[in-house]
Amino acid sequence: MVWSNDEVQKLTNEFVAVADELHELRTGKTPEAKFFQAVFDQKKKHPGHQGVFLATPSGRLLASSTCYEPGKVIALLNDGLKAWSELSTQQRLEPTNDLVNQPTGDRPEDSYPVDGLALRVTARDLPGSRLDGERNSRWHRYYLWLSREEVESFLQTEYQPGQKIKIPANLASRVACLSLLDKGLIDGFTKPFREADVEKASLTMKVTTLSDTEVQFQIFGLTATKTTDAQAFVSNLPKYEEIPKWRGVTTKIIGSATLDKKSNKFVKFQMVAAGTRFGGAYIGRTPEDWGEHPIGFSFVMGESAPAEKIAPEFPHRYPWLN
User: Fold this and answer.
1) For the residues of 286-316, what is the DSSP string, one character each?
2) Angstrom distance (rounded) from CA 57 to CA 100
3) Contact between 125 and 41 (Cβ < 8 Å)
4) Which whole-number Å values give the CA distances from 30 to 24, 45, 70, 99, in the listed order?
5) Which residue has the higher pLDDT, 109 or 173?
6) What is the model's pLDDT at position 185?
7) Where are the domains of the chain?
C-alpha cells in the first residue's frame, strides 16, 4: 500500500494531507471546489481528475500524477518539495489571491446524520454464481445516509415478536438508486439510477427478539433497476459497432439490526446485497464486460469518526442536504 510505506509517510510530514469526494470538487461551486478546479486547470501531463495533487495554500500547483506505486509517489513528493523550495514566501502564500480569502462553504459533511443512520457501503464484483472462483481484490467504497427524520418515519412506538415493518418506498429506492450501482470491476464511472429506473425496491424489517433495552430485527428485501443511459457520451464509442441498450442491477438483500429502546437509535445495522449487474457503464466498460456478472455489496454502520464522515455520492439526491 502506498500510504503505509515508511518513506512515503516520512515525506508526508512535510505536507498537509487531505482527501475529499471527487464529484463535488469537479462540479461544485463552493470555495473548496473552486480551489480544486483552479489547481486542476494547471496540470499538464496528468490525465483525469483523480490522483495526487501537490499545491500551495493559494492553489499554485507544484506537482501531480495518477501514480499509485510507492516509488513513484516518493519521487512525486520530492518533486513537490523541490518546487516549493524554489518559491518565495509571497509566491507560496499569495495573500491577495481570491481563493485564499474566501470563507469555507457549507459542506455535506456538516450534515452528517449523527442521530440518523450513516452506512458505509463496499461494492465488489463476485467471482461467480457459486462463489468458487478467484476473488477480485478490487473494491469501491462510498456512503449512504438517512436523516433522523427519515429513520423515525419507520420506527414504531411499540414492537411485537414477528412484527414486520416496511421501509418507506422513497428510502428503499434510495438504497437501489444511490448505493446498488453497477460499477463492475470498479472501473469507469456510472451514474446513479433515477427513481424512474426502479422496477423493484422493497425493504422489510422483522422483529426477531425483544428485551427491556433492545429490539433486534431481521432485514430482507429485493431490488431491480434498469436504464438506457449506458455509455451514452463516451468518446471511444466509434470503436464498437454497437453498444448495450440497457444497464442495470438486481439484488436480494438480507441483514440484521439492533435498536436501543432508550435512545431510540440503531446501535447495530448491517446488510449484504448480492445479485447481478448487466450492460455497459456510463464510461469505461469494455465489451467483454457487458454481459451479466455477479456483484455484491455490504452495508455497515459508520462510526462517527472523522474519516467516516465522508459525504455520500450524489448529495443533490438527498432532499435535506440541499
Assistant:
1) -GGG-S-EEEEEEEEE----GGG-PPPS-GG
2) 7
3) no
4) 9, 26, 32, 11
5) 173
6) 60
7) 6-101, 108-321
